[in-house]
Amino acid sequence: LASTATWDVHSADPSVELAPYTAERLRAVTAPGFSPRPKLLAPLRVLRVERAVGGGFDVVASWKAAESMPPPGPLRKPLGADATDRGAEGSEVVVHTAQPPLLCTGFEGSVASMARNLFAFADAADEAKGCLAGAPLLTEDDESTKVAGVFLVGPAVRHGEHSFCFVYKFRQRFGIVANAICRGLGRRDTQMAVEVARKMNMYLDDLKCCEATCGEAC
Q1: How many whole angstroms separate alpha carbon 61 and alpha carbon 67?
Q2: For residues 62 and 47, what is the distance between their CA atoms, to the nearest angstrom?
Q3: pLDDT on residue 99
């Protein structure tokens, strides 16, 4: 059960879809003739897990609104759940399992778990959506919007719908933070260093180039 059919997500950004190796393994176990063949159901929101009277567990979930997925490329093998398995929005489905179900929601992240008091976080009313909801809110210099002088670097950096979760992405923002700290300390002679970093594609302050090359995520 998944809140989003991640196996059907196709993007120019590899950080927002299944890795090729994972996708290939999933195709293998969902291929006709494989046993036991798992059933992929999405989009569902799990409501609760109950112990079944006869043993095992019942997972109670409700159907979310149907998702619109882009068509796969000509070289991609289709993979996903049968549309006929989907229920009406708001209706509930009960899935029984003999084993305790696994809650696979990823990691909370060090920012939320260790520095929650230093950052404000995006919610449903903010610009961030989907997997970007709940991200720390940052200024253009990757500074906390809640506590001045606190900066964020690393895979948790988000700007709108742009995700910097891979090292080759978020390292391009290091110069932004360094320059902001220097200016905050009264050092104004950073122009030469900024230009050197920019020529090496290590000073990413214009996110429009991400939209042109990587779609919705940088």
Answers
A1: 17
A2: 7
A3: 94
The mean pLDDT of the chain is 84
User: Side-chain half-sphere of 131: how many Cα atoms within 13 Å?
Assistant: 20
The 3 state secondary structure assigned to the chain is CCCCCHHHCCCCCHHHCCCHHHHHHHHHHHCCCCCCCCCCCCCEEEEEEEECCCCCEEEEEEECCCCCCCCCCCCCCCCCCCHHHCCCCCCEEEEEECCCCCCCCCCCCHHHHHCHHHCCECCCCCCCCHHHCCCECECCCCEECCCCCCECCCCCCEECCEECCCHHHHHHHHHHHHHHHHHHCCCCCCHHHHHHHHHCCCCCCCCHHHHHHHCCCC
Q: At what angle do helices 174-184 and 191-199 cross, to 10 degrees?
A: 180
Both tokens assigned to 56? 């095992």
Query: What predicted TM-score, i.e. pTM, was given to this entire model?
Result: 0.62
Strand partners, 63: 44
pLDDT value, residue 216: 46
Please name the residues in contact with 66: beta carbons below 8 A apart, sequence gap of 6 or more: 43, 86, 89
Taking the alpha carbons at both ends of the chain, their separation in whole angstroms is 28
Cα gap 200→195, rounded to integer Å: 9
Please provide residue 99's backbone torsions phi and psi, each rounded to the nearest 5 degrees. -105, 155
